[in-house]
Q: What sequence folds into this?
C-alpha cells in the first residue's frame, strides 16, 4: 500500500471532527466536501453562513452533512469567548477584547479544538503561516513536556522515476528559523514520532550537515553532532545518526563508503535539516525538480492538531491535510 493510501485508510477507519477556519475559500470547500463524502472526517466549516452555503452549493454539496459555524451567530461564540478571556486574561485580554477576538475565524476554530468541539483544525490557504501558528499557540498551546513547536513536510516519493519509494519526513521546513542544538534535538524526536504515527513504520533519523562523520570541522557541524547526542540521550530507543550529508543518509552505497559504521546504512526516512534555510530549500528542490509530493507544513508539538496549508495549495492538498490531521488526532 502506498504511504498516502495508508494515511487515507487510517483516517477512514477512525474519522475525527476537523474544523477548517477558511470555509469561504473554494479550495477549502472542495477539499472538505471530498473528505466528507469519502468518510475521512466530520467536517466543520467556519465563515459567514451565506457565503459558505454558496460555496457548498457551487461544489454540489447539498446533503447537509457539513456543519457550518458562523462566529457572528454561532451558539458557541459566547462560551468560546468566555473561555478565551479566561485563557488570555493574564495577557491583558478583557471580556470585550475576547469577544472581538472570537469573531476571527482562526481563533474561533482553534478555540473549538481547545474546548473539545473539534479534534483538529486546518488553515493557511488564505492566512499566513505566522497568523495560523500564532492562533494555534495562543489557544491550543503546546503538548505537556514540549518546549518547542516545530513543523515538517511529508514527502511522498511514489512516481515511476523515483528509485527509492515511500514516505519521508523533512523538518523543520516552515517554522523554527535557526534552532540551537537542544532545539534541533527536540525537532528530531518530534519528527521521528510524527513519522511513526503517519507512516506506521519505525523512524530512522538522519541529522543533516555539509559534513559526514567529522569530515569537516566547523561550529555549524558541532551544533548537529551535539543535537544528535542530546537526541540519543533523550530518546535512546530511536535509530538516529549524525552528522551526515544527505547522500550518505539516503544512498546505501554512499553510506557504505562514507559512513560504514552508521546505523542508518543509507536508509533514513526522517531528515532533520540544520536550519530553516536548508530545510525550506531542500523540500522545494525535492518537490520541483525531484517530483516529490509535499504535504505540509504539518505542525508538531501542540496539545491537539492544528495544521498549516500553503497559500498556493489546491483542493487535493486540503483533502490530504485533513486526512493527516485526522490521523494525528487519533494519535494524541
A:
Amino acid at each position: 500500500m502506498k504511504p498516502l493510501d495508508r494515511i487515507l485508510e487510517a483516517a477512514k477507519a477512525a474519522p475525527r471532527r476537523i474544523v477548517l477556519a477558511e470555509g469561504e475559500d473554494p479550495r477549502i470547500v472542495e477539499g472538505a466536501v471530498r473528505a466528507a463524502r469519502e468518510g475521512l472526517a466530520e467536517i466543520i466549516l467556519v465563515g459567514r453562513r451565506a457565503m459558505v452555503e454558496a460555496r457548498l452549493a457551487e461544489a454540489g454539496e447539498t446533503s447537509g452533512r457539513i456543519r457550518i459555524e458562523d462566529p457572528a451567530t454561532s451558539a458557541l461564540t459566547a462560551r468560546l469567548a468566555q473561555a478565551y478571556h479566561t485563557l488570555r486574561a493574564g495577557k491583558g485580554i478583557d471580556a470585550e477584547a475576547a469577544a472581538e477576538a472570537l469573531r476571527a475565524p482562526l481563533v474561533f476554530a482553534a478555540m473549538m479544538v481547545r474546548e473539545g468541539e473539534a479534534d483538529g483544525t486546518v488553515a493557511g490557504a488564505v492566512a499566513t503561516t505566522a497568523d495560523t501558528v500564532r492562533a494555534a499557540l495562543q489557544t491550543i498551546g503546546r503538548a505537556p513536556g514540549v518546549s518547542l513547536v516545530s513543523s515538517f513536510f511529508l514527502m511522498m516519493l511514489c512516481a515511476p522515476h523515483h528509485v527509492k519509494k515511500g514516505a519521508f519526513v523533512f523538518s523543520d521546513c516552515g517554522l523554527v528559523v535557526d534552532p540551537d542544538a537542544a532545539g534541533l534535538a527536540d525537532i528530531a524526536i518530534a519528527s521521528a514520532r510524527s513519522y511513526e504515527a503517519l507512516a506506521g513504520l519505525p523512524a530512522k533519523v538522519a541529522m543533516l550537515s555539509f559534513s559526514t562523520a567529522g569530515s569537516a570541522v566547523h561550529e555549524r557541524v558541532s551544533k548537529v553532532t551535539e543535537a544528535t547526542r542530546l537526541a540519543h540521550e533523550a530518546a535512546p530507543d530511536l535509530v538516529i545518526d549524525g552528522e551526515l550529508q544527505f547522500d550518505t543518509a539516503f544512498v546505501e552505497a554512499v553510506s557504505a563508503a562514507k559512513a560504514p559504521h552508521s546505523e542508518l546504512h543509507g536508509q533514513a526516512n526522517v531528515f532533520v535539516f540544520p536550519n530553516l534555510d536548508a530545510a525550506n530549500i531542500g523540500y522545494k528542490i525535492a518537490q520541483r525538480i525531484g517530483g516529490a509530493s509535499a504535504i505540509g507544513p504539518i505542525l508538531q508539538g501542540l496539545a491537539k492538531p492544528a495544521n498549516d496549508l500553503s497559500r498556493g495549495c489546491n483542493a487535493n492538498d486540503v483533502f490530504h491535510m485533513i486526512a493527516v490531521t485526522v490521523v494525528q488526532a487519533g494519535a494524541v
Q: What stands out?
A: The mean pLDDT is 91. The longest strand covers residues 150-157.
